[in-house]
Amino acid sequence: MGKFQNILKSLRATKGLTQDELSKQLNISRSTIGMYEKGAREPDFETLELIADYFNVDTDYLLGRTTKTTYIPSPALRKGVSINVLGRVAAGIPIDAIEEVIDTEEITEEMAKTGEFFGLKIKGNSMEPRIYENDVVIVRQQNDAESGDVVIATINGDEATCKRLRKYRDGIELISNNPSYEPMFFSNEEILSKPVRIIGKVVELRGKF
Q1: Higher model confidence: residue 125 or residue 90?
Q2: Which pairing describes strands 136-141 and 184-187: parallel, antiparallel, or unpaired?
Q3: How does DSSP classify residue 169?
Q4: Cα–Cα distance measured from residue 135 to residue 118, given in angstroms and rounded to the nearest whole number
Q5: Whole-Å CA distances, 117 to 96, 122, 201, 202
Q6: Which part of the chain is CATH 1.10.260.40?
Q7: Which residues are catalytic?
Q8: Which residue windows are transmembrane per the record (predicted)?
């Protein structure tokens, strides 16, 4: 977690904040901020996301997994590669074969070289306050993801849903940001029988205002 402690220090310094000032902004105790920066304590996923939101960076950036702050609202688009934005993703249909294209978005050429991407318009409020209805998320197509990632998944042949993934030895949990929605746990057997399939990882959020 050494990278996290140094990145947090750097972000705090960039904003010109003391540990005490940052603790008040995040509603986290100053001693906890101090332990994070000493590497004596690790934040849980919820706290990591809170810190990422405050500094407008990706959680992967906070953890030192990437040098790019990709998971932030991007109202001003750069010129690059155009990708389709879908209104829905149905289970069992290849992304390229889906005809319900409602818009397009642009991603950088550099990002486009790392995989296949599509945009998805969010329906409902299950991922608020991080992701709102009608926001567009940029999704990299992949059939697996790390615990803590926000993914697009299909369950039991239904339309795809956007949820946070948490992995366990005996199964997975798909979690909404909105506490009004209960987490959905699926055993390893249910993952195969329903089935539950990950079709992509959310790498960027494009808020619609």
Answers
A1: 125
A2: unpaired
A3: T
A4: 14
A5: 10, 16, 10, 10
A6: 4-63
A7: 126, 163
A8: none
Looking at residue 174, its pLDDT comes to 95
**Greatest mean pLDDT among 3-17, 79-93, 182-196:** 182-196
The domain made up of 4-63 has a fold known as 434 Repressor (Amino-terminal Domain) (1.10.260)
Question: Is the CATH number 3.20.20.30 carried by domain 81-206?
Answer: no
148 near 45, Cβ under 8 Å?
yes
- Chain position carrying tokens 């960027």: 204
* pLDDT tens readout for residues 14-69: 888 899 989 888 888 999 999 999 988 888 877 888 888 888 888 778 888 766 55
Q: Are 173 and 123 in contact (CB under 8 A)?
A: no
In 10 A of CB 29, how many CB atoms? 13
